Amino acid sequence: MSAAHEQFSGRDAAPNDLEAFWLPFTANRSFKKNPRMISGAKDMHYITPEGRKILDGAAGLWCCNAGHNRKPIVEAIQKQAAELDFSPTFQFGHPKAFQLASRIAQMAPGDLDHVFYTNSGSEAVDTALKIALAYWNARGQGQRTRLIGRERGYHGVGFGGISVGGIVNNRKFFGGLLTGVDHLPHTYNRAEQAFSVGQPEWGAHLADELERIVTLHDASTIAAVIVEPMAGSTGVLPPPKGYLERLRAICDKYGILLIFDEVISGFGRLGTAFAAERFGVQPDMICFAKAVNSGTVPMGGVIARKGIYDTFMKGPEHVIELFHGYTYSGHPLAAAAGLATLDLYREEGMFEHTKAIEQRWADAVMTLRSLPNVLDIRTLGLVAGIDLASRPDAFGQRAFDAMDKGFRDHDVMIRITGDTLALSPPLMITEAQIDELIDKVGKVIRAVA
Ligand code: PXG
Q: Which residue range is the domain that position 375 belongs to?
């Protein structure tokens, strides 16, 4: 053993020491005093180290749409690990990355038919923004550099994503961000929209704000608009009826690219492969991640329209067309998991199931409206957002307590943002499990009253 190796291995890691792991998006000190540990999972449930079964009301983090530890996906990953652990996708390829890209392209609407792989939603967003900028460069319109996001938008945590995103805490600590970014107003108005099931009637006119932004900057300086078709992380904001159509029409009028960030809405969450299909609006690029392989192996990507891809396919054939990519783009394990997951979605008719139970889900969730502190409930697909009144001088505390008590006392996993509870269970949920989940959430809301 070398001296250097001995020096670094001399200190044994203490067993069960929680200190070294700096948890993401977590109150670390509170967690480490009283952790919420998960050590297993099966189908609709997480399992704690003590063996408690926790009903998963969040599909992990909007990821595990097929349910947990599904046998065909587990076996596909195991088989792939034994067959090909890693191979580069820079200048080389392996079959499953191509097969999966073809399957995803088939599922996407219209001529959205080329897939660029990333490892996360954040990377998917940065990739889409970079493709938009490079696309205009390739078309001889390199002055189109402005990127337009939306207030309350969540596009991950890369510098591109937080720049176009609209969540203040994700932005305010991190300096100047990207320049040349503007934001549309968000689409939520409680007075007009409270307790709407599905798309609210009010708010399509907010898309016209894009006209104002175009008037301010001129269309010749704007590369792309990026929005979540259904804003998820900010607390579930379904798009007002007609809003996305209007955004598309204005983008078309000025030749601006429209990017849908479908990291949450993709792969069945709204009862269709993509929200673009459900809403009948075709973007120029779709960002995806999470449920592409039911959250089993990190993977994300961008689906681009044929015209975008073709624009790059010029010049000498030995020259790289897009100077962008990640070591793990199209990783064999992620691709194998993706193929098995898409098979499972199809074989079990999970997107159709989601569509079929949507009304049942909405009815069940809306029974919570009379509980203490419930200010609004929004539902769409197999998603719900429940706004709770904040405790005086303690924004976020009530929802934090709901999440914590849910896990400890009621065996349910709930996601929270601010004082909003977000529900997005795996798509395999049964009607009886919907009732069980809503019953648990109701108990939790009463417990934090
Ligand atoms: N875009 C959207 C629309 C997202 O929801 C990302 C990009 C970033 O993905 P990655 O893989 O880089 O995290 C997301 C992620 C929540 C929650 O509780 C949502 C996300 C992540 C963590 C928590 O709502 N969405």
A: 11-66+349-447
Task: Report which DSSP code applies to 112.
Answer: E
Segment 89-145, tens digit of pLDDT: 999 999 999 999 999 999 999 999 999 999 999 999 999 999 999 999 999 999 999
Measured in angstroms, how far is the CA atom of residue 286 from the centroid of ligand 1? Answer: 15
Q: Assess if residue 1 is contained within a domain.
A: no
pLDDT of amino acid 1: 42
Model's pTM, two decimal places? 0.97
In the structure, which protein residues have their CB atom closer than 6 angstroms to any atom of ligand 1? 61-62, 120-122, 125, 154-156, 228, 232-233, 261, 263-264, 289, 300, 415, 417, 422
Q: Whose CA is nearest to atom 1 of ligand 1?
A: 155
- CA 68 to CA 128: how far, in whole Å? 29
| For ligand 1, mutation pick of 23, 25, 61, 378 (most atoms within 8 Å of CB) | 61
Identify the band that residue 286 occupies on the pLDDT scale cut at 50, 70 and 90: very high
- 152 Cα to the center of ligand 1, angstroms: 13
Residue 89 shares a structural domain with residue 203? yes
- Tell me the CATH number at 40: 3.90.1150.10
Do 237 and 274 belong to one domain? Answer: yes
The label of the residue with tokens 């990821």 reads: 63
Count how many domains the chain has: 2
- Say yes or no: 49 and 166 in one domain: no
pLDDT tens digits along 314-335: 999 999 999 999 999 999 999 9
- Tell me the average pLDDT across 394-407: 97
Which of 163, 152, 63, 86 has the alpha carbon at shortest distance from 326? 86
Residue with the two structure tokens 């790289």: 320
Considering the domain architecture, whether residues 361 and 258 belong to the same structural domain is answered as no
Q: How far is the CA of 263 from the centre of ligand 1 (A)?
A: 7
CA distance 288 to 266: 6
- Rounded mean pLDDT of the chain? 96
Which regions of 43-111 does DSSP assign to beta strands (E)?
45-47, 53-56
Same domain, 232 and 179: yes
- Looking at the structure, tell me whether residues 217 and 358 fall in a common domain: no
Residue that is written with structure tokens 């007002």 in the block: 240
